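As described in the Methods, two query proteins were run sequentially through the folding procedure within a single session, without resetting any intermediate state between them. The first query and its resulting C-alpha cells are shown here.
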Amino acid sequence: MNSKIKDESVDFLFRSILALETVEECYNFFEDLCTVPEIKAMSQRLNVAYMLSTKRVYSEIVAETGASTATISRVNRSLNYGCDGYELVFNRLKNEDKPQ
C-alpha cells in the first residue's frame, strides 16, 4: 500500500468506486467526478499498461494510443516497480475481451 495516498478521503473514493455495479454506473460516476481529459488520460494509461504487459513495443503503443513515450515509460515503471495493481486487474479480466 502506498502511504503517500492513504487517508480517509481516498478510502472514501475507493469505497465509492467499489460500490458501482455496472459499466453504465461507472460512466455516470466518473463523468460527475472527473473531467473528460482526466478520464481519457486514465484510460490511455490503462491501455498502455495492457499493451506493455502483452509485450507490445513502444512504437506500436504510440501509434495505437497516441501516448507519449514519457507516458509509456512512466507506465512501464509502474508495471515493473509498482504495487502490481495493473497485474491484479489484468489477471481478473483475462477471461473477458479487452474493450477497444
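Immediately afterward, the second query was submitted; its sequence and C-alpha cells are:
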Amino acid sequence: MGKKDIYLGKVIFITKCMLAAYVLTAGLLLLLAFMLYRFGLSEKVVSLCIIGIYIVVTFAAGLLAGKRAAKRKFLWGLAVGVAYYAILVIVSLIVNRGVQDVAGNMVTVFFLCAGSGMLGGMIS
C-alpha cells in the first residue's frame, strides 16, 4: 500500500465522519424545529440549542474519528471539528451572501467545534 493510498483512505474516512456529523445535525435541527413549532421556544433558547447541537455533533464525530485512529486520537478529533466548522462557515457565507451576519460568533463557534471534536477524540 503506497503513501497515496494511505492519504486517500484518511480523506475518505474524514469524509465519512463529516457525512455522519451532518446527518446527525440535520436530524437534531429537525427535532429542534418541531420543538419550536410545538412549544413556541424563544429565540434565546433556540440559539442555545443550536450551540448545543454543534457541541454534541462535533463531539460525536471526534469520538468516531478517535475510535478508528490508533495514535493521536485528539488530533483526529480536532481535524473533524475544524472540518465541520469550515463547512459550516462556507455554507453560512453562501446563504448569507456576506461576512457581516456570520462574523459575530465565528471565533466562539470555532473553539466550540474544535474543542468538542478534540475532546471526543481524547475520550475514545
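The CA atoms of residues 63 and 123 lie 7 Å apart. We note this only descriptively and draw no conclusion about the first query from it.
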